[in-house]
């Protein structure tokens, strides 16, 4: 066919734009040009590159106006073609399946010797095809290539990518290109992007931790403190860091619109984006670690976030805000979520850490209208109902909080233990002891092997003056020995305070004899 499948083209496009920069000859040879797909992809973006096309079927020249797409247009059979010059990049796009295996290998080796890189695009499934538009050369001669056979047949293939029915491959000429240099170019370009608003105290550490990124994009959503001065000082002291700062106005304010605006300002040449909060920092060595785990086929990555609170207490949980530059959109006005446009493969990197400095919680009354708007847009997301319930509770709207929790509990995929603990907190605020305990016991039943809900129960029993029950709850908690870092993790259930409470509750319970550690 004169037209080419879209499969693999984004992968090829990414590499061509990088590899052409290290070619000694700024020229491209397009074998079997057909409709001029590769000219359409690259001619405008590479205005100084010389384009040559081989198209054996002459009617295609006029049908697809190939003379306007290439500097040189030839009617050659590539099997008998002898290169008269060197090329930086040669395309064998939907070509090799139109000849025998032996001919394909001969063509590939001949053109690789005359090029720095040869890009192959070929069907890797059983793919019979006859003549098309009267063109006998469109017939597939070898119609059963496989990915494994391609790799075994053609030497010096350095990179490959399979997408649906198409395999894409890059052959590297070992006499003209260093594989180490090419491999570095193949690796990901990484950007960090974040919003800030009165983060003067955070931005210095943030910027220092992310300066290894290929690009940093910051969007100021309305700072009135010295945040911009901190950024300006960093820029002055680090002129080689690619940092851009944009003041943005989002009215009415929504976090998803603000983050989407920030993401849109990231260069399209970037492969991987790290979305952060301004009060977060990345671990030392993060870039090399992320690059080592990166694959083109995996567009999203999970990592560990350590939230550091007052008195240096911390919680740890997985997070997933590292994503491909393309194919993602932020959704929801607040507690925004990153939505993939297509099904995604997520890679977990357990030794990649982000540290978040937690500030003292204050009531965010203005968050309530945004949460309510979120539910108008997507009412079946249980987490939004839980966030709304928490805000109602902190703003003394307890009955509305209970209604919101109940809505969340009715939705599929919810974290029932988390929601029952939230329900417990609301009943505790209302002074409804029996209902609070019922909710807490429900939470425990959903987390039978976890220490935290037993610890929370012990603290509540102590608050009620029921110290023996509190002590027994701690003893039960002590039997749960495996700590899991997630939304249920509670540092006080594991640190020295736990032991202190055991001793205190033993004393308060009024039991004589024995030992609290038994």
TrEMBL record:
InterPro entries in UniProt: Nucleotide-diphossugar_trans, SAM-dependent_MTases_sf, TPR-like_helical_dom_sf
Q: Which SUPFAM superfamilies match?
A: Nucleotide-diphospho-sugar transferases, S-adenosyl-L-methionine-dependent methyltransferases, TPR-like
Q: Span of the secretion signal?
A: none
UniProt-recorded name of the protein: Uncharacterized protein
């Amino acid at each position: 066919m004169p037209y080419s499948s879209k499969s693999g083209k984004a992968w090829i496009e990414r590499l061509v734009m990088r590899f052409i920069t290290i070619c000694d000859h700024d020229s491209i040879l397009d074998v079997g040009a057909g409709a001029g797909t590769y000219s359409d992809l690259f001619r405008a973006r590479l205005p100084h590159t010389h384009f040559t096309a081989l198209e054996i079927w002459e009617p295609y020249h006029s049908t697809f106006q190939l003379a306007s797409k290439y500097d040189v247009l030839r009617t050659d059979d590539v099997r008998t073609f002898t290169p008269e010059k060197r090329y930086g990049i040669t395309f064998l796009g939907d070509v090799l399946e139109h000849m025998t295996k032996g001919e394909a290998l001969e063509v590939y080796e001949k053109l690789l010797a005359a090029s720095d890189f040869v890009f192959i695009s070929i069907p890797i499934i059983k793919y019979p095809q006859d003549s098309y538009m009267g063109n006998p050369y469109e017939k597939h001669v070898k119609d059963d290539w496989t990915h494994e056979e391609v790799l075994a047949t053609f030497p010096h293939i350095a990179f490959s990518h399979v997408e649906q029915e198409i395999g894409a491959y890059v052959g590297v000429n070992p006499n003209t290109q260093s594989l180490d240099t090419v491999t570095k170019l193949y690796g990901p370009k990484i950007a960090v992007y974040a919003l800030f608003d009165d983060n003067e105290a955070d931005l210095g550490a943030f910027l220092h931790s992310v300066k290894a990124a290929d690009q940093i994009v910051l969007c100021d959503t309305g700072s009135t403190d010295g945040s911009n001065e901190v950024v300006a000082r960093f820029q002055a002291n680090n002129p080689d860091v690619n940092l851009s700062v944009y003041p943005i106005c989002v009215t009415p304010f929504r976090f998803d619109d603000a983050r989407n605006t920030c993401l849109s300002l990231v260069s399209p040449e970037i492969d991987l984006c790290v979305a952060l909060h301004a009060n977060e920092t990345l671990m030392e060595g993060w870039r090399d670690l992320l690059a080592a785990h990166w694959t083109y086929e995996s567009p999203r990555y999970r990592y560990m976030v350590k939230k550091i609170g007052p008195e240096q207490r911390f919680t740890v949980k997985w997070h997933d805000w590292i994503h491909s530059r393309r194919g993602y959109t932020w959704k929801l006005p607040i507690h925004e979520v990153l939505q993939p446009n297509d099904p995604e493969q997520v890679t977990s990197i357990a030794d990649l850490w982000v540290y978040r400095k937690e500030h003292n919680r204050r009531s965010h009354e203005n968050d309530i209208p945004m949460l309510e708007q979120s539910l108008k847009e997507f009412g079946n997301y249980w987490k939004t109902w839980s966030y709304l319930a928490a805000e109602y509770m902190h703003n003394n709207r307890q009955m509305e909080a209970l209604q919101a929790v109940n809505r969340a509990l009715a939705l599929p995929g919810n974290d029932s233990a988390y929601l029952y603990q939230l329900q417990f907190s609301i009943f505790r605020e209302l002074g409804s002891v029996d209902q609070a305990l019922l909710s807490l016991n429900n939470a425990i039943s959903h987390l039978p092997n976890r220490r935290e809900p037993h610890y929370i129960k012990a603290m509540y029993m102590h608050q009620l003056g029921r110290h023996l029950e509190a002590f027994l709850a701690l003893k039960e908690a002590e039997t749960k020995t495996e700590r899991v870092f997630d939304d249920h993790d509670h540092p006080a259930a594991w640190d020295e305070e736990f032991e202190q409470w055991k001793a205190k509750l033993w004393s308060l319970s009024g039991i004589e004899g024995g030992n609290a550690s038994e």
